[in-house]
TrEMBL record:
It comes from the Bacteria. InterPro entries: Bact_2-comp_sensor_kinase, Sig_transdc_His_kin_internal. Residues 152-227 form the Signal transduction histidine kinase internal region domain. This is Signal transduction histidine kinase internal region domain-containing protein. It comes from Pseudoalteromonas piratica.
Amino acid sequence: MPKAINYLVLFVFSLLIVLYAALLTTPKGQNLNIHLDAPFWIFLQCVIAQWLTLKIYHVIKQGNSSITMHIAKVFFASNLVFSSLVTALVLALETVIGIQKIDTMHMIATLGMNALLHALIGAYSLAFELVTRLQGQQLILAKKEKALLDSQVKTLQQHIDPHFLFNNLNVLSALIVKDPDEAEEYLAQFSDIYRYILEHKSKNLVPLSHELAFANHYMALINTRFNGAYTLNVTQGEGRNTAEIIPCALQLAIENVVKHNAASSDNPLEITIDIQSDCIVITNPLRLKEFKAHSSKIGLTHLNAQCQAIFNQSILVDERNGCFSLTLPLGV
């Protein structure tokens, strides 16, 4: 809270205290008897009570005590110091000026009023201090969580790149022996795709329209290698291309389909991408390869970890009725 607003609150509180005291002491039917300087002296005491409370709050360390015990110590210590000092000062001034008869009842009443004043101001000040402290802790926690999230995403992205590179260099190696001209074209396409990865590897999300274009380019590489054995069909459901997706997510999904399913140019396998309002679904008929390399499932594992880190959602994998589907969350 800005200091000006805090002082304004204390001054309004002082006015209310003076008004309430005047209402109690003024006989019925008479005008309110208010001393014009009274709000100033009450305001001064409020400022002293607040300053003393916060000073003792920072002097008394919490240590191993609970927050409740720590606040209780601060409250009672500051109340005792404030009440004793201010009461002694007021009584001394009244004695010197001679405006008030000093007796035991007056001393007890003055001490009680100062203790009550501090109880109100001290509680208000400690409550505000605790709220400020809690907000600061929440801000620090949020920054740590964001730093951890960024670190996790960057680590996962570093795992995707060599995975992608390894698979496509194997394709290129085979094409160089089979058809050097086609290998050169493949290398040009691969360079464009890898440039996309380098440009977006530091981002958590990319526009879906960019990712769909990237997926189509990737399918061109796939068809070069497998002679059109796999086709890609994009359907626009309830979603829009303005949504955002994890970079290279569609490439990983397509790569997973090609890795596990057999297809040929005579009997191509269709991969369908369906854009929904808050997710994207990649489906294909199951045609599991009879012989396939051992799968560590590292691609989908990393993709799932990224979705959990960024969207706090997991990917959904489903196999039923001879079809495989992979659902990925979208940022909308």
